[in-house]
Design brief:
This protein is mainly β. It has no helices and twelve strands.
C-alpha cells in the first residue's frame, strides 16, 4: 500500500527558502499526477502545486514564481522548492496524488506532513 513521508520543514525567516521532500513507497510517483498541499492553522487544506506524469506543472496564484515542484524518478521522491517565503506560507505541507488522493480502506490517506513556519 502507498506510504508517503514528507520532510524538510522547519522554522525560516521571511524571505528565506526551504526544500520539502516527499518520499513514496508502494507506488511509483512518476506514474501519477502529484500535488503538494498545505493546511494553514484554522484553514482547509489547499493545493499549492501539481506535477503531471508528463512533467507539466501548475501552481496556485499565491505561490507562483516562488515555489517549484519537481520529481526524482530514481529516488521515487518529489520535491517542493520554496523561496521568498512569507508568513502566510506557514502551514503543514503534504504530498499526495492529484486530483484524487490515495485511499486506504476507502478513507483518504494522508502522510503526517511537514510543518513550515515562516516567522521573524
Amino acid at each position: 500500500q502507498v506510504q508517503l513521508v514528507e520532510s524538510g520543514g522547519g522554522l525560516v525567516q521571511p524571505g528565506g527558502s526551504l526544500t520539502l521532500s516527499c518520499a513514496a513507497s508502494g507506488v511509483i510517483l512518476s506514474m501519477y499526477s502529484m500535488g503538494w498541499y498545505r493546511r494553514a492553522p484554522g484553514e482547509q487544506r489547499e493545493l499549492v502545486a501539481s506535477l503531471t506524469s508528463t512533467g507539466r506543472t501548475n501552481y496556485a496564484d499565491s505561490v507562483r514564481g516562488r515555489f517549484g515542484i519537481s520529481r526524482d524518478n530514481a529516488k521515487n521522491t518529489m520535491y517542493l522548492q520554496m523561496t521568498s517565503l512569507k508568513p502566510d506560507d506557514t502551514a503543514v505541507y503534504y504530498c499526495n496524488r492529484h486530483p484524487t488522493v490515495w485511499t486506504r480502506n476507502d478513507i483518504d490517506y494522508w502522510g503526517e506532513g511537514t510543518l513550515v513556519t515562516v516567522s521573524a
